[in-house]
Each structure stands twice: as structure tokens, then as C-alpha cells.
Specification:
The protein is α+β, with helices and mostly antiparallel strands and 193 residues long. The protein has one helix and twelve strands. The strands form two sheets. Strands 1, 2, 3, 4, 9, 10, 11 and 12 form an eight-stranded antiparallel beta sheet that branches. A four-stranded antiparallel beta sheet has the order 7-6-5-8, with no helix packed on it. A hairpin with a 5-residue loop joins β5 and β6.
């Protein structure tokens, strides 16, 4: 007979090996799943607290950022002049460029030229200068602990020139816009970074 007969002990040994392999595969799968859960949680925490990802809605930051662009912010409550920041305004998130910080004086002439502490700003990111929607008294002294912000598309932007928005307090800031990641054709660092 060509069939080999196995003893009861051999059959029991084979079954034990099969069960051992099953448990080891489950342990490996469980470990892998655990690692994936931790990695996903870490990515979510980083995205929410350290580097929020935002999608632009509106055109107040054109020529720098466009409606539909996806950007990454870096958590920072101390932006400098020239930085593009995201901040809370009511239930909305707005993006604007920091022009001046607390204690500085801002003036804007009828042609839309911006002056900080008497010095005209070089603004290569602005394609069309205008005084825009301005209902504050100029020159304007920026209150301590706040930031005077303007949109790059000055004719449509509602920003610190309007009492509606006013200056941005530190506690309202989400972070500095660091990188445009979508669309891929516009991928790169945001000016001011």
C-alpha cells in the first residue's frame, strides 16, 4: 500500500502545529492592526493640533492663494509681518496676511499704498492696490497683542480695514500658512515662509 499510516501521536502533533500557526498569524494581524490605529491617531492629532490642513474658500488672497487650494498651516501664535495666517472669525476660518503687529501704526493712502510706521511696504504679492472697504480712521495704531491683517486681493477682501473684522487677537490664530499642497501645479511654500 502506498498510503502511509500515521499514529495518533503524529496526528495530534500536526493539529497542534496548525493551531500554533493560527494563533501566531492572529497575533501578527492584531499587532499590525494596533500599529495602524496608533499611526492613524497620531496623524489626526498632528493634523488637528500641529499642522491643520485647510481648503481655501473665496478669492480675498488671490494672487497668492485661490479658491479651492488646499494649504497646510503650522501651529504658531506669533506671526510676523508678511506671514499669511489662518484665524477664527466667529464660526468661520479666514486667511489674511499680517501687515503690522501691536504698537505699530498703519496708514493706507487713496492709491492703496500701505505704510507701517511711516515706511511704505513693498508688496509684490498684491497685483491691484486699492484702499478698498475701509471704515477705520487712518492712520491706525494697532492695539498691543493684536495683528493688523489684509487680504492680498485688496478690492474684495474684508479685513482689518473694516471694523467688522478688526485686528486679530493671538487667541484667534490657528497658525501660519506654510505650504500649498493642492492643486499639484501650485504646490510649494506660501510667500512669507
Amino acid at each position: 500500500m502506498g498510503v502511509e499510516e500515521k499514529t495518533l501521536a503524529e496526528l495530534v502533533e500536526e493539529e497542534l502545529q496548525k493551531e500554533t500557526h493560527k494563533h501566531s498569524r492572529r497575533r501578527i494581524a492584531g499587532g499590525t492592526l494596533g500599529v495602524l490605529v496608533v499611526v492613524i491617531a497620531a496623524v489626526v492629532l498632528v493634523a488637528v493640533f500641529l499642522c491643520p490642513v485647510l481648503q481655501i474658500s473665496g478669492n480675498s488672497m488671490e494672487e497668492t492663494l485661490y479658491d479651492g487650494d488646499v494649504v497646510v498651516a503650522i501651529n504658531s501664535k506669533n506671526p510676523e509681518a508678511g506671514d499669511v495666517i489662518a484665524f477664527y472669525y466667529g464660526n468661520d476660518i479666514l486667511l489674511k496676511r499680517v501687515i503690522a503687529t501691536g504698537g505699530q501704526t498703519v496708514d493706507i493712502d487713496e492709491d492703496g499704498n500701505v505704510y507701517v510706521d511711516g515706511q511704505q511696504l513693498e508688496e509684490p504679492y498684491v497685483s491691484e492696490k486699492t484702499l478698498g472697504n475701509c471704515d477705520i480712521e487712518l492712520p491706525y495704531q494697532v492695539p498691543e497683542g493684536t495683528f493688523f491683517v489684509l487680504g492680498d486681493h485688496r478690492s474684495v477682501s474684508i479685513d482689518s480695514r473694516s471694523r467688522t473684522i478688526g485686528c486679530v487677537e493671538k487667541k484667534m490664530i490657528i497658525g501660519k500658512i506654510m505650504l500649498c499642497v493642492w492643486p499639484l501645479s501650485d504646490m510649494g511654500l506660501v510667500s512669507g515662509f
